[in-house]
Amino acid sequence: MLPVTWEDHEMQSLVGVLFVALATASLVTAQTANPRRTVWDGVYTEAQAARGTTAYGQSCAGCHALATEGKAPLVGDPFWKSFAQKNVGDLLEFVSTYMPNGNPGSLTEPTYRDIVALILKSNGFPAGTTELGGNASVSVQIVQKDGRTELPANALARVVGCLTKNGADWVVTSATTPERAEREGQRVIDAAIEAARIRLRPILMTSFAFIFGVLPLALATGAGANSRAAIGTAVVGGMLTATILAIFYIPFFFVLVRRGVRDGLVVIRERLRQRRREAQA
Ligand code: HEC
């Protein structure tokens, strides 16, 4: 039997596979260390909610009831219907972008935060020792105390499971609990950044798994090595370039296209309004 050397083609493939396995293992362990904060962790203070009471009385109480019933209630079922599985950042963003209705954005950021603290308190979430801040609130999830949350009907949801055929129907088996997928009031650029953050790891994992997989081809020696090396080099180089470019290009074009479409719609709507006004005059 011949001695096994580094030159050996099989040996190189094996090293390639080991590389992929190691890279995958370390990425998976990094993924699990991500404790999530919820509204039950005390994300505002009593003092902050108390401050919110005055501002709420002046700017919101005219249209909203801080109770489960009454006009446009912000507590209980109506609250869960709109904000279950979203996060406090979404609530803050909605309120500071659209409220008070008719005069949106008229209050200061700290005041909006105080009012959101009051809304959280009114919904029975406990106070804590740190005030509700701007950026930290983005990751605070709105879920029931036991972590379980039923999504309202017609909510856009995300599940991960296996799609299997059962007679004429397709069913999702071994699925995760549905997670809310849409985010109201999120800026296009924030959506792109968040998506990039979430997808970066899987994209790198699949790309590098493939690159390391064809690496032995690029480093081939022995009989027929030239053609294998030629293909391998092209594939490795192409994948590396595509991965590096895509990481920056895709979020960039997403923002460009979404902004373009939205701004375009705004322009068209303005034109239509103007035409209608001219027709009436
Ligand atoms: C002039 C009346 C008016 C005022 C004042 C007003 N709102 Fe609203 N609010 C509305 C209306 C109408 C809606 C529903 C609009 C929508 O869903 O797009 C709404 C929706 C909301 C929602 C979402 C409720 C849900 O179930 O989806 C929140 C939260 C909210 N308002 C908070 C506030 C806060 C906080 C203030 C004070 C800073 C405020 N609003 C002031 C009229 C008002």
Q: Number of helix segments?
A: 7
Q: What is the alpha-carbon Rg in Å?
A: 27 Å
- Indicate the structural class: mainly alpha
- Approximately what portion of the residues adopt beta-strand conformation? under 5%
The shape, in one word, is extended
What would the CATH topology of the largest domain be?
Multidrug efflux transporter AcrB transmembrane fold
User: Number of DSSP strands?
Assistant: 4
Helix content: 55-70%
Strand arrangement, major sheet: 1-4
Number of domains: 2
Query: Architecture of the largest domain, according to CATH?
Result: Up-down Bundle
In whole angstroms, how far apart are the ends? 97 Å
Let me know the largest β-sheet: 2 strands, antiparallel
Please describe what this structure looks like.
The chain has 281 residues and is mostly helical. It folds into two domains: 119 residues, Multidrug efflux transporter AcrB transmembrane fold, CATH 1.20.1640; 101 residues, Cytochrome Bc1 Complex, Chain D, domain 2, CATH 1.10.760. 56% of the residues lie in helices and 5% in strands. It has seven helices and four strands. Strands 1-4 form a two-stranded antiparallel sheet. Helix 1 runs antiparallel to helix 6, helix 4 packs across helix 5 and helix 6 runs antiparallel to helix 7. The longest helix has 56 residues. It is extended. About 7% of the residues have low confidence. Bound molecules: heme C. Heme C binds next to helix 3 and helix 4. The site of heme C (HEC) has 16 residues, from helix 3 and helix 4.
